[in-house]
Design a protein that fits this description.
This protein is an alpha+beta fold. Helices cover 38% and strands 12% of the residues. It has two helices and two strands, in the order ααββ. Helix 1 runs antiparallel to helix 2. The relative contact order is 0.13.
């Protein structure tokens, strides 16, 4: 097993589940969807694969302002 896929503890036990998550996200994204839903799916999948409690993604509009900040699973704070 390549060292890049071995976890911090030296085990690749969670690797098949992570691949399954990645493939499931790819299948979901293959259909036509709105940008926000696609990005939310990507962020949630990335958090799962990275074993992260939180994940977020911000993207900018053409004026350089943040168009959206996606943070699934976290409380929205104005």
């Amino acid at each position: 097993m390549p060292s890049s896929v071995v976890g911090r503890e030296g085990s690749a036990a969670g690797w098949p589940g992570k691949v399954q998550t990645l493939l499931g996200a790819a299948l979901e994204l293959s259909g036509e969807q709105e940008l926000e839903m696609v990005l939310r799916t990507i962020v949630a999948g990335a958090a799962t694969i990275a074993d992260a409690r939180y994940a977020a993604l911000g993207y900018f509009d053409s004026a350089g302002d943040i168009a959206s900040f996606i943070h699934p699973g976290t409380a929205h704070t104005p």
